[in-house]
């Protein structure tokens, strides 16, 4: 009986620590990447934390090597949009009126995803200068979390860009 209690205690402690690890990483993302510190609404950290606690990120976080995140907020509709991925899996979600939606719509172009995955910030800035002419203007935040010996967080915010010739086959909902 003592062994069973000991094993259950270790499992509970391990689960609690891993749970806190992602919450800490998410908070670090917010501290490093959020520019509007006076925002009173829900933050992407709040949303990530809720979904993590519900187990929605289990497949993505089962092996945390490099995690990529694209996020945007549509001020007109109040909709949050997020795509998170690693080598094994991808999750897309929107959040509006206190409801999550996990559809398979792609909200970001393949090209935006490719540039993010290569972390090609130079080309992102070039694209933003030449092809960020959408109305309404949307800002995207790209985040890269790498975990080797220590957690490293990189982020870049940029205006959404689109080239009809290159991106027409993408399923953009904005």
Count of domains:
1
Overall average pLDDT: 81
Largest sheet: 6 strands, antiparallel
Distance between the amino and carboxyl termini: 57 Å
Spatial strand arrangement across the major sheet: 4-3-2-1-5-6
Helix count, per DSSP?
Answer: 6
Tell me the number of strands: 6
Query: Runs with pLDDT <50, length 5+?
Result: 1-19
* Pattern of helices and strands: HHHEEEEHHEEH
Strand residue content: 25-35%
Structural class: alpha+beta
Radius of gyration: 18 Å
Roughly what percent helix? Answer: 40-55%
From the structure provided, what is the oligomeric state, counting identical versus distinct chains? single chain
Anisotropy-based shape: globular
Fold and architecture overview:
The chain is an alpha+beta fold. The protein has one domain (2-167). The protein is built from 6 helices and 6 strands; from the N terminus they run αααββββααββα. It has a 6-stranded antiparallel β-sheet with strand order 4-3-2-1-5-6, with helices on both faces. Strand 1 (66-74) and strand 2 (79-85) form a beta hairpin.
Keywords:
174 residues, alpha+beta, 6-stranded antiparallel β-sheet
């Amino acid at each position: 009986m003592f062994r069973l209690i000991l094993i259950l205690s270790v499992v509970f402690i391990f689960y609690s620590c891993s749970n806190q690890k992602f919450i800490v990483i998410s908070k670090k993302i917010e501290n490093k990447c959020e520019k509007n510190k006076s925002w009173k609404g829900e933050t992407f950290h709040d949303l990530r934390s809720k979904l993590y606690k519900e187990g929605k990120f289990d497949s993505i976080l089962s092996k945390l090597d490099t995690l990529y995140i694209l996020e945007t907020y549509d001020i007109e509709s109040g909709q949050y949009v997020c795509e998170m991925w690693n080598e094994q899996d991808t999750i897309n979600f929107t959040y509006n009126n206190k409801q999550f939606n996990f559809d398979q719509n792609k909200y970001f172009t393949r090209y935006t995803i490719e540039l993010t995955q290569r972390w090609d910030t130079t080309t992102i800035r070039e694209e933003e200068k030449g092809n960020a002419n959408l109305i309404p203007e949307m800002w995207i935040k790209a985040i890269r979390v790498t975990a080797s010996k220590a957690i490293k967080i990189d982020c870049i915010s940029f205006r959404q860009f689109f080239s009809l010739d290159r991106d027409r086959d993408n399923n953009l909902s904005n």
